Amino acid sequence: MAEKITIEVARYSPERDTEPHFQSYQVPVHKEWVVLDALNYIKDTQDGTLTYRWSCRMGICGSCGMMVNGEPKLTCATFLSTYSNVGAKIRVEPLRYFPIVRDLVTELGDFLAKLKKAKPWLIRKQEMPLSQGEYLQKPEQLDQYKQFSMCINCTLCYAACPVVGLDPVFIGPAALALAQRYNLDSRDEGAAERTAQLAHPDGVWGCTFVGECTRVCPKHVDPAGAIQQYKLASVVAWLKSFVMPRGHES
Amino acid sequence: MPAGNAGTVKSAPQYTKYHPRWYRPRVSVYWWLGEWHYLKFILRELSSVFVAICVVETLLLIRALSNGVEAYASFVHTLRNPLVVLLNIISLFFVVFHSVTWFNLAPSAMPVRMGGKRVPDVLVAAPSYGAWLMISAFIAWVVLQ
After folding, report:
1. What residues of chain A lie within 8 A of the CB of B27, using their CB?
2. Is the complex ipTM higher than 0.90?
């Protein structure tokens, strides 16, 4: 018989509740079980009304992010055994700073709008004709942005960033890291187009370098690093504009 | 949703009027007290106040030096006040904390690449610590002469 652990899950029903409350469930601790397995177990055997998002179970889709004992985590990559050793309860809540739709489901509309502002796609002044083949890139050029391209939009970094909670207009870590990912891509020519959103008090200058986004990122993207690097680059570009008022962009 | 002008076509309809009642959590004024990582960040920000105090104290010391032996002796006497000593001890802690935390963050803001590969963060931070040690050793040597 497997050892059991108590899971306290935040519940919120928009039809009945004015604020979330916790509900406790007992689940077995199997060595290979993650928090998401426990939630699936609860939904399958104890309470079918429990609502949460998940999909791939392998840290790729980024949809099962939740607060686990106050830490933003991908529940598909957070093992129950990590917590059962100390005999503690596991408290599962929706990701912090997001509006809650129901139980553990957060509203992502604001995040998606911010992501779009950062223009995280390849921008070309002129597209090459298809007949010329693909845009080639050296391994060193790939290496420039590869780390930032690993983002899966799980929004854990938003739940870790106090600026996101305190300043709702701040674009946020993932969107800024993705903007920098494209700025550093040798195939991209859209850095100037992104400047208006990035070099702005709601963009990189809103970041106070708490560094929590980098700490919690399950894909080791280092959004805090991306933001500071952009800050440095934009200051250098600004200084260059004094030295070379017309030619600094060339 | 307010009625749109007749004839206008919206490509992205917004169903905000009928969405379920979202719960919007409020951020507590004491958000930074709950977690060590946040508290560390606030202390790091606060450390700049003590760095400023050290700078002002150094400037006052230089001014006292330039005003002659008596002014310098008077300033040193002020520095011996237990309250000033306590302030300086606290300032020393925060200045060290400020330096260490920023030196550790520097590699993240300024990644160095050599031969197409990123230099490990430890090696980027090491020169800052090295320079800090050397300058401190030099100042100690001058003072203890």
Report:
1. 97, 162, 165-166
2. no
